[in-house]
Specification:
CATH topology: Arc Repressor Mutant, subunit A
Helix content: 55-70%
CATH superfamily: Winged helix-like DNA-binding domain superfamily/Winged helix DNA-binding domain
Distance between the termini: 30 Å
Largest sheet: 2 strands, antiparallel
Low-confidence stretches: none
Number of strands: 2
Number of domains: 1
Number of helices: 8
Mean pLDDT: 89
Radius of gyration: 16 Å
Strand content: 5-15%
CATH class: Mainly Alpha
Shape: globular
Length: 141
């Protein structure tokens, strides 16, 4: 079943996004896939925010059910699974960049590298293309 607002409390687009990503973990998983090249379960567990295993498993299942993430067997490790963003998940990049820019502007303690914020302000389309190219390279192995 496609992910749509039929299961949501209302058909408001903001509500749809909140019901899809409105907890403190889901966008961090998307962040790790988009910006940090993480692909394996253990890599997500190693993130600074220290997500618990049960929450991580639940959020990955939800993201997969909603068509944002897909998983496949890791060809180099038979017992491991690789997670990757679907096209629907990749389309979150502009939103994630906007969140990063906003946080960089309003959080004096952000850990986003200054060079990244500068590039984001200077040429967002080029930066987005570079990130997507990097994802493609990561997914090739």
């Amino acid at each position: 079943m496609p992910h749509n607002s039929a299961r949501c409390r209302s058909n408001c687009p903001i509500n749809f996004v909140l019901e899809t990503f409105g907890d403190k973990w889901t966008l961090l998983i998307v962040r790790d896939l988009l910006f940090h090249g993480k692909r394996h379960y253990g890599e997500f567990l190693a993130s600074d925010e220290q997500i618990s295993t049960n929450i991580l498993a639940d959020r990955l299942q939800r993201l997969e059910r909603d068509g944002v993430v897909e998983k496949q067997a890791d060809p180099s490790h038979g017992s491991k699974v690789i997670y990757r963003l679907t096209q629907k998940g990749r389309e979150l990049l502009p939103i994630m960049l906007e969140i990063t820019a906003w946080s960089g502007k309003h959080d004096s303690r952000t850990n986003v590298p200054k060079a990244f914020l500068k590039q984001l302000a200077k040429d967002r389309p080029r930066l987005a293309a570079q990130i997507l190219d990097s994802l493609d390279e990561t997914e090739k192995g």
